[in-house]
């Protein structure tokens, strides 16, 4: 019998669930406890199939648009990514019972955009076209009041006067390095542009990228556990590639690993996007243990103690 090859595994910390994701999942779980099934959720509560499938099995019905929610007392929950103003307005018009699970850090960006608009500034949103969070943030303002840019090259194409009243906000799950470039381009072209008082990229995105950056310099390969439609997970894979990792795979689960890429690898870092549960990481470590003699260590680059309380309506319903 051939001896298993050795493999050093570095687990990045922090990794996995952030406070906003924990809160969003808790909102759905509590709603099920208090009101019973069915509970409707507009879009995926977070971008993770394992989480969505687990909740669906408990009686959650995921819908694409509000029009799919039937009239009646069943709660309709808005996902962690946030929604455009038109969505709760439509819900009120139809007398639907809604619960907002938008991450408080996304709500912060919404409020910043609204304040800038009220003060007569055009808002530049740095983000990715079509992402639910971007749609929600753009939807806080009237049509034409915000412009989306995704790269420094797109900043060069903006047709505003250098002294125009402008402000920028950002999607919370962007690449820290890419965003720094885009912000520098904005400030170069529009020196008077208003910046957020605190960075909009959330603490969890920043911390997970920093951990991967540090780990990637020490290993030959990186696995990011997360969904393909998860912005923060995609950014983690990009960070690993940028740091020179020859193998950087984004996988939703152990079943999607391309094992051919790891034949000669002797050091590996594993992380997880902010909406990926830890059980998916554990299953991947177990799968490597079947194929290699593993030595696991943890690289901790930050301690996270962030906590967001549940929406008041749920807290009051539970207390009652």
**What value does the Rg take, in angstroms?**
21 Å
- Class per helix and strand makeup: alpha/beta
Total count of domains: 3
How far apart, in Å, are the first and last alpha carbons?
64 Å
What keywords describe this structure?
320 residues; alpha/beta; Cobalt-precorrin-4 Transmethylase, domain 1; Rossmann fold; 3 domains; 5-stranded parallel β-sheet; 4-stranded parallel β-sheet; 38% helix; flat
Care to describe what's here?
This protein has 11 helices and 12 strands. The model has no long low-confidence stretch (mean pLDDT 96). It has 320 residues and is of the alpha/beta class. Strands 10-9-11-1-12 form a 5-stranded parallel β-sheet, with helices on both faces. The chain has a 4-stranded parallel β-sheet with strand order 3-2-4-5. Strands 7-6-8 form a 3-stranded parallel β-sheet, with helices on both faces. The protein has helices at residues 19-35, 49-57, 86-93, 104-118, 132-138, 152-156, 176-189, 203-216, 231-242, 278-291, 312-319, and strands at 6-13, 39-42, 60-63, 76-78, 98-100, 122-126, 146-149, 166-170, 221-225, 247-251, 267-272, 293-300. The chain folds into 3 domains: 6-17 and 203-300, 3-Layer(aba) Sandwich (Cobalt-precorrin-4 Transmethylase, domain 1); 19-103, Rossmann fold, CATH 3.40.50; 105-189, Cobalt-precorrin-4 Transmethylase, domain 1. The N and C termini lie far apart (64 Å).
